[in-house]
Structures
1.
Amino acid sequence: MAERAHHGGELRLRIGEAAARAGVSERTLRYYEEIGLLSPAGHSVGGCREYGPAELARVTRIRELQELLGLELDEIRGVVAREDRIDTLRDAYRRSEGDEERRAILLEALQTTEALYLRVSARVERIAAFRDELAETISRYRTWLAGEIPQPERPAAV
Amino acid sequence: MAERAHHGGELRLRIGEAAARAGVSERTLRYYEEIGLLSPAGHSVGGCREYGPAELARVTRIRELQELLGLELDEIRGVVAREDRIDTLRDAYRRSEGDEERRAILLEALQTTEALYLRVSARVERIAAFRDELAETISRYRTWLAGEIPQPERPAAV
DNA sequence: AGAAATTCTGACGTTGACGTAAGCTGGCGC
DNA sequence: GCGCCAGCTTACGTCAACGTCAGAATTTCT
């Protein structure tokens, strides 16, 4: 097995295995690093990239945003950057830092998440509407197949 | 006004107006024609493209498939080609042609539509799940803002 | 008719998200 | 030591979906 346990006990994969598990190419992982979207958890002595579970999860998240929402990697960087700031915030809580600053970061995260939520909601509803249209079309086809004569309806929607 | 009524009484727009109403560029319309995705309803004597309501509706449909479902124009051609065959079928019904052939076309249309329906359904559910995740994140943020201390939970999903 | 606006047909340019190939390097198995 | 595999960097190639520009032709306005 090519896996290897880090000194902290965390699973560390080199790029080949990491790419295979995430379902992307090695080139994709290097490219994500190139554009500052995802850097490996660390490097081996020889300079090989090493990825942990968090990085794999992030790849999955990136692909979701890309394929499901049609976001560009550029925008996605903003989204995951926000998530990173939240992780930072979690640490800040534990280290009990400036309260005012914490509120600000949290508020900003709340707002950007809500904005994303609205986008996703709108998208979900449009696609659901499209799906319902398809369902109607299907039942219409079924009716026709049962022997009915189709109406030459043309709503001519513009 | 740049509009003009066709001899059949149908609205005919030249490429500029058509593109504006459909919310795309002129180049896009010409490109769609280039790849056999959408041809104008007709041409003027001098060779200018003329688009009717049906073509505008088709552009809208194409953009839906492209943006909402992330389909490539290549695949979309298949989908709209099927819709065209259905229109043809409607005419065939009126001209009362071969019954066996009609059933075959209708059955094929039903199947491809059902296949598309499944794709769309799957997509809708994945996006809805993502939206729900966001909703949870938001309420978590709200709780934190209300004074709670965040838990350093890391599911480490792979 | 003549000017102005729109459209036509090529043809080349662009952008995002990688693919691919070349040449070099580090660790291992025998 | 030697071969081999996986990985590294660098750099050019690709593909879809248009954008853009030039120069000629069409349509509209006055």
Note: The CA atoms of residues 50 and 152 of chain B lie 62 Å apart.
2.
Amino acid sequence: MDIISQVKKITREAIANLYRTEIEETSIQVNETKPEFEGDYTVVLFSFVKLLKKSPEILGNELGGYFVQNHPSLFSSSNVIKGFLNLSISDKYWISFLQKNFSDNNFGKKEKTNHRVMVEYSSPNTNKPLHMGHLRNNFLGWSVAEIYKANGYDVVKTCIANDRGIHICKSMVAWLQFANGATPESTGMKGDHFVGDYYVKFGNEYKKQTDELIAGGMSKEEAEKEAPIMKAAQQMLVDWEAGKPDVIALWKKMNGWVYKGFDETYKRIGSDFDKIYYESDTYILGKNLVAEGLNKGVFFQKEDGSVWIDLTAEGLDQKIVQRKDGTAVYITQDIGLAVNKYEEFKNELSIYVVGDEQNYHFKVLKLICQKMGFPSADGIFHLSYGMVELPSGRMKTREGTVVDADDLVDEMVAIAQQHTEELGKVKDFTEDELKELYDTIGLGALKFYLVRVDPKKRMIFNPEESIDFHGFTGPFVQYTHARIRSILRKEKIGENNAILNQASLLKLEKEVIRELEKYHAIIVQACEEMNPSVIANYAFGVAKIFNSFYSEHSIANAETAEKKQLRLQLANFTAIVIKSAMELLGIKVPERM
RNA sequence: GGUCCGGUAGCUCAGUUGGAUAGAGCAACAGCCUUCUAAGCUGUGGGUCAUUGGUUCGAAUCCAAUCCGGAUCACCA
């Protein structure tokens, strides 16, 4: 049990024993003691003052006495300032804690249970390459999955490929009209970028055609409906759903190009999935469920044949679930997918990592599933994250300000290489080792940068700031790890712990241990909040306090043999926790850098 | 217009769910490499926590109103 939980438990116990009063542990507030006061943890007394009719002073002294008397192996002393009871943990406790855990690679993680969670993330459209926003999504989703694993859950990582629909037809139509049979092979392009170019071409041609129609006297709305290339795309969607062979063949060919490109990117950024769903499979099930919902009276049909759900009673609007031409809309397939997932995995929680622009969509999806009476409905959770913007504002396809994922990764790795070469610390590395190191650092910097911010908040990607490898960054944490490993390659950690029994701790030694002790609580918190930034902030905190310790005290040349052993254990423990925390973020840590 | 989200140092972000004098990083300035990796460490300056009112022992945190920014309310996905 972590110390804060123990303090709460003992506080409850003390109040029960001293005052014959039962209180809830959740009503007890325990903080880390502010550095300007003496102590490690602080119990806030104000809330009990009224209940127990005692002054904070007396209450604090009585409770403090109870702590030290009844749990002397844990608490060495206490003091009361205003309404705060400050407790000092004994050095002995810290040292035995260190000895017990310093080589435990699973420290902080929970035992496996059979609770199953599904995390869906990435979910690309197969008509254009991944961009920076997808990277935030991938890193978040992957990390949340790892955090759940660390909390003992059985995790299924999934991805839905949005591989059909009007947007896919757009790039297909444009390819037919403009490509003259060109392929990724014939042009030497990565497949996803190749197809993306035709999606852009569609947009340009569409704009040209609507402009011409408007110039010819048509209204804007009418022109947008009547543009021949749009009509061609809509017809293609109908043909696709009808299974027209040449359309299906083209669709398979172009999607194949895209997947090949995606595979490369996913491999590069270290993203993977246990199960990939395809919208082209789930939309049929969605359409069947629409028919079922129509029978149940959950949905209703308008005169033109389109199918809707009325959510005005829930404070929302009417929402279309199937077009008048019978084709599926976006939410149709999501209804099918929700059922599909649950039938296959019986997961109690289904997390969707999707941008906050779709908050409304997921509210509607959950409501529909609940009204349909699906057993999976209540477990649907939308992990909504904010958009990634540039200092100049939102990324816009039309203005060409979209930051491409592949380009960004290349750039970060190149900067990692440049810094590494300038510092010249790994001149003896082989080509392969260097390449791996550049990837580790470049991707580490990128991932950390995107994951260190609270997911809920939209964030600004500042290119200049992102290439800084100092301070609150991935490379800073990686560097701390490399430094420790460097020492541990030269020095042996002894087997005999008994010699440490009489040791006392210096301020910085204790602060490092105290920080490490928090790791378990951090893992729990990150899971409860579904928030990897909790881990990122913590990893940085560990590295920072260790670096202070490192520069102040020598490990290899410690004052005594006992101190050397203690500090080697401390260093080893720190390296393990850094490595473990960074792994939860999908970031590797190097042995040298 | 309805609904939802946000506003903390010049910039980017924390703030343990209501606790002590609001913290980091970057940027600026001043120091520290004959000692385990200086991608590091130490110090200085920098704040009307958007505004106003309320709730109470105590508010950046909770409530209300206002201002500012964003998202969404499509037979796009």
Note: The mean pLDDT of chain A is 93.
